[in-house]
Specification:
- The complex is a heterodimer.
- Chain A is an alpha/beta fold.
- Chain A contains 24 helices and 20 strands.
- In chain A, the strands form four sheets. In chain A, strands 3-2-4-5-7-6 form a six-stranded parallel beta sheet, sandwiched between helices.
- Chain B is of the alpha+beta class.
- Chain B folds into two domains: about 80 residues, ACT domain (Alpha-Beta Plaits, 2-Layer Sandwich); about 70 residues, 2-Layer Sandwich (Alpha-Beta Plaits).
- In chain B, strands 5, 6, 7, 8 and 9 form a five-stranded antiparallel beta sheet that branches.
- In chain B, a hairpin with a 4-residue loop joins strand 2 and strand 3.
- The chains are: A alpha/beta, B alpha+beta.
- Chains A and B meet through strand 6 of A and helix 1 and helix 2 of B.
């Protein structure tokens, strides 16, 4: 903050909005309550920031995540003290696990009541400390502006994440200084994440790349967080090297799904070709992925023949679970540009002979056609419903959100993404109920786009109160429910691991989704047989407003291929006929 | 490649902003990920700039130790993380107060032991002493063990604090 500029004095609530305007905030997702009334009062008089009223604070955070992931901007949440803050905790944890930039303002009881068990008091900074990148309890009015500015800086820089600002009510009401900045540079000194990779390390990485005979590129969510230029650079790297490329759940869209180098998603429900390529590679270039357990399978047999280079903006991600030969710390977009430049300098040429042999092997795996399924008879195969949804929306710019479970994996397998920021899913935390509120945030950010929440009936029920939000703002979200009347992934694990004892996984007492849509003034559609599917999808897409489409799918379909829990990449189960031969080990049963 | 089998003991020295919750952040980082804290000392060391130094002794495989250092460094209020165990030569000290209750020969012997450890007598009554002993952890532990054999004891230890030898100064960047 420049000392020469004089500070204007105004109520804290107004300072909060001023700083947010300066940070480029155009929308806030929130829910009012006693401890944030001064901010809501200031919002009432504010014309530049739009407020979207959700129906539950968890949904406010997921909506902000949807907004952030689809725009690359910081999502902003405003909730009250006590239950408002505790309800937000699941969303904050979700954002931390998936590196989503969020600033969450929580109201707090007035400073003099903190620690007295006052009405709607909770130790918000204590509760949210482990589930945020950073948090503040703002105690001094003269630090208010600096705290908020730093919060935005911390949320969006480095590895992005959620930041909580806990704001006692008196701080919102008392006059606080506000200084208009001439420059956009934040007045922050202490938090300076490294974004430019070390030149010597890049040199070493390219040297290693030149030795590769069986390479693979393994890209993750960092490619999306870095911005669209990172996906563009990845595209150029793949073009230049001709290397096979696989993406994690969080990375889908970083390389167009129809690129011939793309092997599909890897990991537990990844493709056979992606996992076998990982298992047999002699060189792995990890770009912004974190060796998640859903990706690696059994660590002791993870890509055992390979040299590994890991590029990540978070130094603590490197060597966390997988020991690598070389770590590159930096923004993955900048890293890719540096690699491309250094490849030019070192006259990198792909090893054509080796690559031809390697691709021949990979095409052999690809020819197993691991995602094949048979739609025979009138019962809709869930895979078919996603495949048709994808095919029938190819002419549109589609944004897809999901909940968590089988439908999420089928969406990842059968829906092709061609651009970054089009795919919003809860990866790390696996939060059922994420998709519907996330779709709210995406649709608010992209009012003209087709936004589809691919859902399961059980996940949908977890945050279905947001139908009211969708109705209030007439957000034309398409809710595509794969209804199999089961918590499908739980049922699948009980079938495979727990002797078909289906304990509490049946979705009993479901609502009539068509009538449910009707009560909120939306269109409700149902597809009960395979012949209905195209008509229902077409009508859903032709409808201007929100739609709930109840897709009655095969009830006991399992999600394949699958790396059984505790197994390695080359031990995949390809389908039901393969299941009997590969039982799950005792060690595997302990894992989730 | 980092070793993932052998457990090592490391002394880390962390310079942080002295702000509310900073200790909870550091402790939470260890407890939340199942890392071990053998000793922890913290105090403000620069009042003007509101800086505190946290000295923490931890143990783990080299992979875990590396992870702990990266995670500490990642905290927003952290200015620097020094691993004294792998860095240039360093000194480590710990202070303990030991109260011993004993009479007769044992009382005389406890004074003799205290003298050989260069412990100071802070308090005495007819059947007790409070000694102050300073040194590296093994010396402090040895002193306490000897006292234990001479009578009933009560012990308070500060935990380890340390710094590098030579003219290198750990400053705020």
């Amino acid at each position: 903050m420049s000392k020469t500029q004089t500070a204007a004095m105004m109520p804290g609530a107004e300072v909060i909005l001023k700083v947010m305007e300066a940070e480029g905030v155009d929308v806030i997702f929130g829910y009012p309550g006693g401890a944030v009334l001064p901010i809501y009062d200031a919002l009432f008089k504010n014309n530049s920031i739009r407020h979207i009223l959700v129906r539950h604070e968890q949904a406010a955070v997921h909506a902000a995540e949807g907004y952030a992931r689809s725009t690359g901007k910081v999502g902003v949440v405003l909730v009250t003290s006590g239950p408002g803050a505790t309800n937000a905790v699941t969303g904050l944890t979700d954002a931390l696990m998936d590196s989503v930039p969020i600033v969450c303002l929580t109201g707090q009881v007035p400073s003099h009541l903190i620690g007295t068990d006052a009405f709607q008091e909770a130790d918000t900074s204590g509760i949210t400390r482990p589930c945020t990148k950073y948090n503040y309890l703002v105690k001094k009015s003269d630090r208010l502006q600096a705290n908020i500015e730093e919060a935005f800086h911390v949320a969006r820089s480095g590895r992005p994440g959620p930041v909580v600002l806990d704001l006692p009510k008196d701080i919102q009401m008392l006059d606080a200084p506000y200084v208009e900045h001439k420059s956009a540079a934040p007045a922050v000194q202490r938090y300076k994440p490294v974004t430019s990779p070390d030149k010597a390390v890049i040199k070493e990485a390219v040297k290693m790349m030149k030795q590769a005979k069986k390479p693979v590129i393994y890209g993750g969510g960092g490619l999306i967080n870095s911005g669209p230029h990172a996906s563009d650079a990845l595209h150029r790297l793949v073009g230049k090297t001709g290397w096979p490329t696989t993406l994690t759940l969080m990375g889908l869209g970083a390389l167009p799904a129809d690129d011939r180098h793309f092997l599909g998603m890897l990991g537990m429900h990844g493709t056979y070709q992606a996992n076998l390529t990982m298992h047999n590679c002699d060189f792995m270039l990890n770009l912004g992925a974190r060796f998640d357990d859903r990706v690696t399978g059994r660590l002791s047999e993870f890509a055992p023949f390979s040299k590994k280079v890991h590029a990540d903006i978070d130094p603590s991600s490197i060597n966390k679970v997988v020991n690598v030969d070389l770590g590159i710390i930096g923004d993955v977009g900048e890293t890719l540009e540096a690699l491309l430049a250094e490849m030019e300098a070192q006259s990198f040429r792909p090893n054509d002979k080796a690559m031809a042999r390697w691709w021949e092997q990979i095409e052999g795996w690809r020819s197993r056609d691991c995602l094949a399924f048979e739609q025979a008879g009138p019962v809709i195969k869930p895979q078919k419903s996603i495949q048709r949804l994808y095919e029938m929306t190819m002419d549109r710019d589609v944004y897809v959100t999901t909940e968590v479970g089988q439908h999420q994996m089928w969406a990842a397998q059968y829906f092709g993404f061609h651009k970054p920021n089009r795919w919003m899913t809860s990866g790390g935390l696996g939060t059922m109920g994420y998709g519907l509120p996330a779709a709210v945030g995406v649709q608010v950010a992209h009012p003209e786009a087709t936004v589809i929440d691919i859902s399961g009936e059980a996940s949908f029920l977890m945050n279905m109160q947001e139908l009211s939000t969708i109705a209030q703002y007439n957000l034309p979200v398409k809710i595509f429910i794969l209804n199999n009347e089961w918590m499908g992934m739980v049922r699948q694990w009980q079938e495979l691991v727990h002797g078909k004892r289906y304990s509490e996984s049946y979705s009993s007492s479901l609502p009539d989704f068509v009538k449910l849509a009707d009560t909120f003034g939306m269109k409700g559609l149902r597809a009960s047989a395979a012949d209905d599917l195209d008509d229902v999808i077409a009508e859903m897409l032709a409808t201007d407003g929100p739609v709930i489409a109840d897709i009655r799918v095969e009830k006991e379909e399992n999600c394949f291929p699958m790396i059984p829990s505790g197994a390695a990449h080359h031990e995949m189960i390809l389908g039901p006929e393969d299941e009997a031969n590969k039982s799950i080990s005792e060690e595997g049963k302990v894992l989730v | 490649m980092l070793d993932t089998t052998q457990t090592e003991r490391h002394t880390l020295s962390v310079l942080v902003d002295n702000e509310p919750g900073v200790l909870a952040r550091v402790v939470g980082l260890f407890s939340g990920r199942g890392y071990n804290i053998e000793s922890l000392t913290v105090s403000e060391v620069d009042t003007a700039r509101q800086l505190s130094r946290i000295s923490v002794v931890t143990s783990g495989t080299p992979m875990v130790i590396e992870q702990i250092k990266q995670l500490l460094d990642k905290l927003v209020p952290t200015h620097s993380v020094q691993d004294l165990t792998v860095g240039p030569a360093h000194v480590e000290r710990e202070l303990a107060l030991v109260k011993i209750v004993c009479v007769g020969d044992k009382r005389v012997e406890s004074l003799r032991v205290a003298d050989s450890f260069r412990a100071r007598t802070l308090d005495s009554s007819l059947n007790s002493f409070v000694f102050e002993v300073t040194g590296n952890s093994s010396k402090v532990t040895a002193f306490i063990e000897l006292m234990n054999s001479l009578g009933d004891t009560e012990v308070a230890r500060t935990g380890v604090c340390g710094m590098t030898r030579g003219n290198n100064i750990d400053l705020v960047g």
